[in-house]
Amino acid sequence: MKTKSICLGTAAFVAAALVASPAYAGKSTKDDRRDQEIQELKARLEKLERESEDDKIANGARLSAVEQKQDAVQWSFVDLRPTVRSGDGRFELAFRGRFMFDFAAFEQDPSDFGIGYGAANNCDATNVLCDQGSGAVFRRVRFGVEGKFFRDFIYEMRFDFGGSGAEAAGTVNIMRVGYTGIPNTRIHLGAIQPIISMYDATSSADLTTMERSAVITTLVGNFGGDNSRRGVEVTWQKENALYQGDNFVLSAAYTGERIGGTHSGLPAAGNDEDTHLLGRAVWRLWSDGVSNVQVGASGSMILNKDDKVMRLNERPEIRVTGDRFIDTGNITVEKDGNHAYGFEFGANFQNLYVAAEWYEMNLDRVGAAKDPSFSGWYVEGEWIITGENKRYAAGATNNNVAVFRGPSVTSPWSMGGALGAWSVHARHSVLDLNAFELDAVAGNRIRGGEQTITNVGLTWYLNSNFKLMGEYAMVDIDRLSAGGTSLDADFDIIQTRAMFTF
Question: Are 204 and 210 contacting, i.e. CB atoms less than 8 angstroms apart?
Fold first, then answer.
């Protein structure tokens, strides 16, 4: 019995253990699964924390890179022009430089000069115009800076040490500040070179010929349009205004006298009360991206001529010497009412360029004498033999707006390699400073003379910075002195130029 009880107790204990064991096993499995899930959640959280920290580091690095870029100074040397700008593009400064070295030789014969210069056998001894001789001069030696600040403001400062006949000690050529924050509009203030005529608006580095036509220099010098004029100018310019390819420019300026005194030819010096209102309107009619056709008009009115004296005279489109063969002498005019106007045409068809301008200058003379008018014109062309084309500049921050620039040299010259770009050019120009030349009333007559020049030339663009030019000019002066004697002159000029610019 005792043995049976022991066996039954043992069996009960084993049965109880067997019954209880699944419950304990199930509880252990749930706890393990919960612990595993907690561990997985912890792992995921730690991973997200690590990723968030990585993102913070990456974003911080990117932000630091942006800040560094904004503060970084960027240098460039496009066409050898050193330019420095801030990383955010709000500030920029570019260094500019240019020199032109000219040489000229004259072919003159005393027998080709009128009796008003002196007897034929003694002309060169009595009048320097009969034998000008050869010479050389640095026509332009310019250094300056230009750029922008706070994105919408622009500036330009330029000094010139060149000259006509002799170099200068250094003068302010341009000293202006501008604003471009208004769409399609630019405002200039300071010592400016206002936009008047196509050829005067063309940079001296891009001239087709060595010098601008005589009518252009006479116009801008006497009617407030040459450089270093104290004044303010507003220009509106827009491409594709009416249709694809067109370009409109409207410019108006209010100017006084030049810095450092009046321009050559005027008797008064240090007179800064003369004022002018002038402007230019241009429309590019058509363009296919390479070829262009443009028409325009310019005008100027003298608002106040303080000394009431004007004098129109001009050189024979050369600056190695400063001699002038045509000259109206001093003309007493009213303070206001003197004005000038004219028209322009310019076009390039692939590598062929043609241009022409005509201007008339009207003076309001004091007293009963008739009011004189003077005029001039030119027509010129350039054929780029190597196939490049003139570049059209629709707009700019300076005054080189709606003009034709020199070609981009596709194959810069190198010894034994490419030849650069070559072109031939020609121009015929006339400037007439006669008014009532044969009038019976001597007080009406102004015998300033008529100057006709035909020149042909060759230009070698070695690269974008350096070019060589050569021209042969045939000059014909038709003029009478006040007393009616001949001041006619015929001579030829051979001139060359070496120009470096950046």
Answer: no
